[in-house]
Amino acid sequence: MKNTLGDLNNHLFAQLERLNDEDLVGEKLSEEINRAKSITSVATQIIANGSLVLEAKKIAENSLDADIKVPRMLEGK
Predict the structure, then answer these.
(1) 13-41: string of b/e by CB count within 10 Å (b at 16+)?
(2) Domain of residue 30, residue span
(3) Is the pLDDT assigned to residue 66 strictly greater than 90?
(4) What are phi and psi of 17, to 5 degrees?
(5) How far is 19 from 59, CA to CA, in rounded Å?
(6) Contact 38/15 with Cβ under 8 angstroms?
(7) Which of 31, 34, 61, 64 is the most exposed place for a label (fewest CB within 10 A)?
(8) Element (H, E) at 50
(9) At what angle do helices 5-19 and 26-62 cross, to 10 degrees?
(10) How far apart, in whole angstroms, are the C-alpha atoms of residue 2 and residue 37?
(11) How does DSSP classify residue 70?
(12) Are 5 and 50 contacting, i.e. CB atoms less than 8 angstroms apart?
């Protein structure tokens, strides 16, 4: 399985379109809202993970730079 952030974006917009369906009412609307909450929860974790990976990559690339300022939270204080 090889999903991308572009795929995630497509899923989120597809979910938005389903929520925007004016024919959804009652139980079907409630089900779609619950599905949207689940998708949002997973998407939030995927984005947070991607941000963490990006931050780690930036730090790794900058570790060769002797003049880099280390953020205080990483100084061990």
Answers:
(1) eebeeeeeeeeeeeeeeeeeeeeeeebee
(2) 5-17+25-74
(3) no
(4) -65, -40
(5) 40
(6) no
(7) 64
(8) helix 26-62
(9) 160
(10) 23
(11) P
(12) yes
Predicted local distance difference test score (pLDDT) of residue 74 = 61
Query: How far is CA 65 from its chain centroid?
Result: 30
Q: What is the pTM of this model?
A: 0.67
- Cα(44)–Cα(50) distance, rounded to whole angstroms? 10
Output the CA torsion sign for 21, 26, 32, 38.
positive
Domain count, the chain: 1
Query: Which are the contacts of 67, defined by CB distance < 8 A and separation ≥ 6?
Result: none
Contacts of 68 (CB under 8 A, 6+ apart): 62
- Angle (CA) 35-38-41 rounded to 5° is 150
